[in-house]
TrEMBL record:
Pfam families for the chain: EF-G_D2, GTP_EFTU, RF3_C
Keywords for the protein's UniProt record, in alphabetical order: Cytoplasm, GTP-binding, Nucleotide-binding, Protein biosynthesis
Chief location: cytoplasm
GO process terms (BP): regulation of translational termination
Keyword Flavoprotein: no
UniProt-annotated binding residues for GTP: 18-25, 86-90, 140-143
Protein name as catalogued: Peptide chain release factor 3
Localization in the cell: Cytoplasm
Gene3D superfamilies, per the entry: P-loop containing nucleotide triphosphate hydrolases, Peptide chain release factor 3, domain III
Amino acid sequence: MSEQTKQTARRRTFAIVSHPDAGKTTLTEKLLLFGGAIQMAGSVKGRKAARHATSDWMALEKERGISVTSSVMQFPYDGRIINLLDTPGHADFSEDTYRVLTAVDSALMVIDCAKGVEERTIKLMEVCRMRDTPIMSFINKLDREGKPPIELLDEVESVLGIACSPITWPIGMGQRLKGVVHLVTGEVHLFEQGRNFTRQDSTIFPSIDDPALEKRVGAPAMAELREELELVQGAAPAFDIDEYLAGRQTPVFFGSAVNNFGVQLLLDFFVDHAPAPKPATTASRTVQPTEEKLSGFVFKIQANMDPQHRDRVAFMRVCSGRFSAGMKAFHVRSGKEMKLANALTFMASDRELAIEAWPGDVIGIHNHGTISIGDSFTEGEVLHFTGIPNFAPELFRRAQLRDPLKLKQLQKGLAQLSEEGATQFFRPLMSNDLILGAVGVLQFDVVAYRLKDEYGVDAAFENVSVSTTRWVYCDDPKMLEQFKEKAAGNLALDASGALVYLAPTRVNLQLAQERFPKVRFEATREHA
Ligand code: G4P
């Protein structure tokens, strides 16, 4: 087996999706503990606590180093290399989340057993479904009273439209939680307060028929378990790897992240069954991860890592080949060779200079704004990876400058911050306005704060009469010119120079579409 094939097969690149408070941070921390990446619980939580409130989030983001390390966490486990990509917690950062999901091969869904399927999980699942991303599920907080497990599976099936195949099954819940049964191995893992719940530090019975087990947990608990198992094994499908890989069936685990309970069972199953890096689609062909030549795409940009130098880190997912330190790569959009000097890898314990990276891995490339989201790097071939969307923002504000002499700084700040992808910046063709679009209202606060902090610009955002935007395309150049003339008052350029129609109302947009049937008005722009 070639080194390329071997290294690819070892990789597991995934993200955790959940509604806030379901336990994503806690679970991340436990996974890192198993990977030996952190020594002590608390280090991930500390960061998250500070991220909760907007103001704290901003203060924290100033320590860019921290947020970069937490963006991608790489750790070894059981001979595999796991890349866990962080998705931003706040709903206003959902665009970022969508793009992170383009860079993973599978996802892990965390559900709070008392709350069941929540609104943000539904949204995130929609994105996973669009891409047929395989999903494992962890039903969390079993140490508290929640909905009956069978009802939870029903809810996942009916609300999220994915079949559930339980791999572990709880014995009791809340105060009565006794343990879980592994439905594939038959083993029973007991829940005992204060244990670590590693394989070495758990009480494990070989099967539910072990008489010692009944003595331990009591006859009523066993009777209830047997009844439930009969029901669930009759109704739920057995685990089918093909159905899972196609995104149609989710293996389900029960546990308690904060107690570490049930987590290793999940992790062991995950490394054995979650997919290794998949082939990637480009506009011209499918790229196999086992190809020897390097290729990859940028799915995230983080600006101003070091405010002194205005540098940015572009996060690239390797799709094929091998990256090695200091190598040159072809930046497809500019057509230029770029030296990938000082690229970063993301061992969870620390951020380190990259020595090498393989498909599924993420490297961070320092640059001064030459790299954008959606860009590809290769060893010379022109490849455009598809499916990294740019969403039309839903909220718009006009930037208002308190000190007119700072206009240049403001323009620069807005343009650079929009490179990160969470906001979009428009310059109308007919006016000197600077309009910012965002998917969530919190973004405006964040931008105002960062303009001040990183660019020394005091700006406020005021309402503007734009209700939606569309990227404009037309195959007929003459028609496009005509349209530009007629609609000039509604046209703007986005940060990359692409033409955008700013519609004051939905009706206006509809009329424009009717008047110019040959012009395409697109709600998403794929990064070309
Ligand atoms: P998130 O990243 O998905 O938003 O969730 P996070 O891990 O921060 O967990 C949200 C809350 O749920 C935390 O409580 C966390 O301790 C708690 N939690 C996580 N897993 C379990 C579990 O298995 N059982 C129980 N009972 N609680 C769990 P918090 O009070 O918000 O924070 P903290 O005071 O514990 O730090």
